[in-house]
Amino acid sequence: MIWFYAEDIVAWLELDPNQAYVPVAELAARLGLTVAKEERRVRAHGQLGAAARRLAVATDEGDSLVRLCLKIELVPLWLTTVDLGEVSEAAAQARLALFQREAASALWQAFRPQGFDSGDLLVAPRQHQDHAEQAYVGSMAVAAMARQQMLLERQLNAPHDDDLGPSAEPWATQARMLDDPAATRLAQTVRKVARTLGERTRRNEYWGALSGLFRNFGLASYRRMPAGRLHEALEWLERWYGDLMGEPEPPPDI
User: Fold this and answer.
1) What CA–CA distance (Å, rounded) separates 143 from 137?
2) Which of 1, 75, 145, 250 is the least buried, fewest Cβ under 10 Å from its Cβ?
3) What's the rounded Cα separation, in Å, for the pair 87 and 31?
């Protein structure tokens, strides 16, 4: 059984939302960790060390001390690296264990390739999921695709030299700077549909396009999409775009 804590480990650390950096010493002390050891570990870690700064920190006595501080948005990453066996604060151990399991699950939801199982301990197998679990799985899938859509569009909008010739498809021309032309083509088509529809409704229509991909085709990621699934999704989006533009259905193949 995986429990829900109303005050999870991040809230339990009592972080100040107005802080950009938090002293590693405060984090370590809250969990009962050895301060000097944690500071050495942060400095040795590639991502944590690059974002750490030595800053003056006010004390309760009114003076200030220079302490190693971590960017507050990297506190969750730091928590995933903490060894549970080193946490002497008993009240923190269960919360930290839950956080690390959920962090691993959230990372897998965001980065798993298409076709892989969710591997999520929080939910039952697909055939046994209740409505809350279905809502969670669907929302995580749409959130992952929205993140991938955002990153792909950012790359598509980057300046590049058009060296594939005038006869190349636009999606192929832009996809050469990316490592997955299929994902690029899908992202371009989603953008075309969402923006065209949004011009008419005056709303953000990305949610509708992405949730439709999940509901109709089970897409939860743009990564490693099977060719057949990609073809079906593109056909569906193109038909939707054709309806928006008032284009007739193409004649059936005979």
Assistant:
1) 10
2) 1
3) 6
Residues whose CB falls within 8 Å of the CB of residue 35, separated by 6 or more in sequence, listed in order: 24, 25, 28, 29
pLDDT > 80? residue 251: no
- How far apart CA 176 and CA 117 sit, in angstroms, is 29
Average of per-residue pLDDT across 175-202: 86
Candidates 143, 134, 112, 133; CA nearest to 206 is 143
What is the per-residue pLDDT across 115-169, written as a single tens digit (0 to 9) for each? 887 777 777 787 888 899 889 889 989 999 999 999 999 988 877 555 555 555 5
Flag whether pLDDT at 24 surpasses 70: yes
Other C-beta atoms closer than 10 Å to the C-beta of 216 total 11
Residue 245, SS3? helix
Listed in sequence order, the residues at least 6 apart from 54 whose beta carbon sits closer than 8 Å to its beta carbon are 66, 67, 68, 69
**111 compared with 254, residue with greater pLDDT:** 111
CB within 8 Å of 202: residues ≥ 6 apart = none
Instruction: Please tell me what DSSP assigns to residue 92.
Output: H
27 contacts 38 by C-beta, under 8 angstroms = yes
Element (H, E) at 30: helix 24-31
Give me the residue spans of the domains in the chain.
Answer: 9-111, 126-245
Give the amino acid at 104: A
DSSP string, 172-236: HHHHTTSS-HHHHHHHHHHHHHHHHHHHHHSS--HHHHHHHHHHHH----STT--HHHHHHHHHH
